């Protein structure tokens, strides 16, 4: 059995065990309270448990692991769906709604999430989910001693990468960039930030059914990525080693082993930074640079809560999560970014998140994570969809394939994958 097959089997077994455990707990307790399936674990799961501990009824939280979709499909098939799930992709919300698995939230909860983001959770004119956690996905992490002056524009970033790579080749110093290319979503996050800068109007069009994945916006974005990824010495150990490097290791290469100067990823990298930083120096982050100074793109992600069909308790719990004070324990604990733009900034005990919350409210170009909006398998997972295609492209441009040929191959693969998933041409 392949590694993904073993992962899927473990997910199904976990779903069956969780369903049986929840049913047993319900019988033993004379009422099972609210069952909530989440994708979170570790540093995110503990503060969420502190949040739900303040709810008026018992809440049983199950961590479904990375493949929450497979987990929930198994529970649905077994007739043991939880009351609530917190999903990392709006595409799952609309898909489940079309299948009749979810309860509509009528009337739609009123909380301060930008209209463009809230509408991603609509299907057939009805709201089926609410955003409960946001992610700022346009950051580069670095040590100020290694990079006193961050680049202000994309051209500055490319020039800096070339200069640092030349120095590394000559003197054996740190590489300019660390990248967790073994995790395909890291590469799609690069793609989305560049796309939001070079073609902001074409960004949302790529999430639609008539998306042109061989068109000019995609080609221009891939050209720009090839410009920086193909720099000789850009990554510690080269492109092949980068394809074996996972996201957490890429952050460690900057803040601990110091084999690289910068690593790009979202605000959630802060937990890895804090856990693995070496010495007293405080790591810093700067915005993904755009074409003009001070006008970089801002790509956001998020987790949305949904209630499964037939669960009144689930609907009530989802509505409770939109309350102004529901996530107060997590705000105080740090590591949480609210999607609600009316949450006072002074409630953030975490200064990093306070700054990022302010950026989300003032960004000129704000776009939601594109790969999370794509249909079916095109959305990406280990070894399939847009994740695999971006890994193939990365392997090409770091392996000596001409940029024009690498772009041609990638756009052909993207267009075919989009057609097969019913998400473009």
Automatic annotation (TrEMBL):
Pfam families: SBP_bac_1 (PF01547). Residues 1-25 form the signal peptide. It comes from the Bacteria. Keywords: Signal, Transport. The keyword Transport applies. Belongs to the bacterial solute-binding protein 1 family. This is Extracellular solute-binding protein. It comes from Micromonospora globbae. The lineage of its organism: Bacteria, Bacillati, Actinomycetota, Actinomycetes, Micromonosporales.
């Amino acid at each position: 059995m392949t590694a993904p097959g073993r992962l899927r089997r473990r997910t199904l077994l976990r779903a069956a065990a969780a369903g049986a455990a929840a049913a047993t707990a319900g019988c033993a307790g004379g009422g099972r309270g609210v069952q909530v399936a989440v994708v979170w674990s570790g540093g995110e799961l503990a503060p969420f448990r502190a949040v739900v501990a303040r709810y008026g009824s018992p809440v049983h939280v199950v961590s479904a692991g990375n493949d929450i979709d497979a987990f929930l499909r198994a529970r649905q098939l077994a007739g043991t769906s939880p009351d609530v799930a917190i999903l990392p992709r709006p595409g799952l919300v609309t898909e489940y709604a079309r299948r009749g698995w979810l309860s509509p939230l009528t009337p739609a909860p009123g909380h301060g999430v930008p209209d463009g983001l809230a509408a991603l959770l609509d299907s057939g004119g009805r709201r089926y989910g609410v955003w409960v956690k946001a992610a700022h996905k346009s950051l580069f992490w670095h040590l100020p001693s290694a990079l006193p002056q961050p680049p202000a524009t994309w051209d500055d970033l490319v020039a800096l990468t070339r200069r640092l790579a030349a120095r590394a080749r000559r003197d054996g110093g740190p590489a300019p960039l660390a990248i967790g290319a073994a995790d395909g979503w890291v590469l799609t996050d690069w793609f989305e930030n560049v796309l939001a800068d070079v073609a902001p109007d074409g960004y949302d069009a790529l999430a639609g059914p008539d998306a042109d994945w061989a068109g000019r916006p995609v080609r221009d974005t891939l050209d720009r990525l090839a410009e920086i990824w193909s720099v000789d010495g850009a990554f510690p150990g080269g492109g092949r080693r980068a394809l074996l490097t996972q996201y957490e290791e890429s952050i460690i290469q900057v803040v601990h082993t110091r084999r690289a100067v910068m690593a790009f990823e979202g605000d959630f990298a802060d937990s890895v930074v804090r856990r693995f930083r070496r010495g007293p120096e405080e790591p810093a982050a700067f915005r993904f640079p755009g074409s003009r100074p001070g006008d970089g793109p801002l790509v956001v992600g998020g987790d949305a809560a949904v209630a499964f069909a037939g669960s009144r308790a689930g609907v009530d719990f989802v509505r409770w999560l939109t309350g102004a004070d529901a996530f107060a324990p997590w705000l105080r604990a740090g590591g949480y970014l609210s999607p609600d733009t009316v949450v006072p900034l002074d409630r953030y005990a975490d200064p990093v998140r306070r700054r990022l919350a302010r950026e989300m409210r003032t960004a000129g170009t704000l776009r939601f994570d594109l790969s999370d909006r794509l249909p079916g398998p095109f959305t990406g997972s280990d070894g399939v969809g847009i994740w695999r295609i971006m890994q193939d492209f990365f392997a090409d441009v770091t392996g000596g394939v001409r940029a024009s040929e690498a772009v041609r191959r990638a756009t052909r693969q993207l267009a075919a994958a989009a057609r097969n998933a019913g998400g473009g041409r």
